[in-house]
Amino acid sequence: MSAANTVIVLDFETTGLSPNMGDRAIEIGAVKLVDGQVVDTFQQLMNPGFRVSSFIESYTGISNAMLASAPSCEQVMAEFNHFIGNDNLVAHNASFDKRFLDAELERLNTNYAGEFACSLLISRRLIQHAPTHKLGDLVRYKNIDHDGVFHRALADAEMTAKLWMLMVNDLEHSGIASPTFSLMQTIAKTNKRSVEKLLSVQRG
Asked: What pTM, to 2 d.p., does this model score?
């Protein structure tokens, strides 16, 4: 069983919301956790081959001038696929990041061996009293250290990694020794009212 504290936590910045509508990744940031410790990071801008909108420029702080000199999506994603290896993957609102990862790797005729877990869905079950479950709001609610940068890929991946480990450590402190990645996936799919029952069974 793979441990929940050994994962790749990733975040994409993109030209829009849907690769099906022609949107592409413009930045990838990722943190490699092994036994809960950051052992490596990956961050790279990538040129999608077309100009991004002024909204995306202002939202992310990533300008067309910055992207003009960046390597292609294909080059960056080939490097990133190597970085992932066989590890499991975590993202905040993972369905979004998974769509872009799948779409970009499909262009390279490759994929990845690991599975995804969503820190957003898990936080809704484990941090039910938070006013919202947006990443920035959770970081402030749980007093997680951050540098004030939001909507840049590596900064968001680092904050997601801290949130992820906070939730894993909370499970350990509640009596679940060495939470597994599959338990985190199960929590994400469990009805909020049934989470405590699930966890009590895990504590045995």
From this structure: 0.96
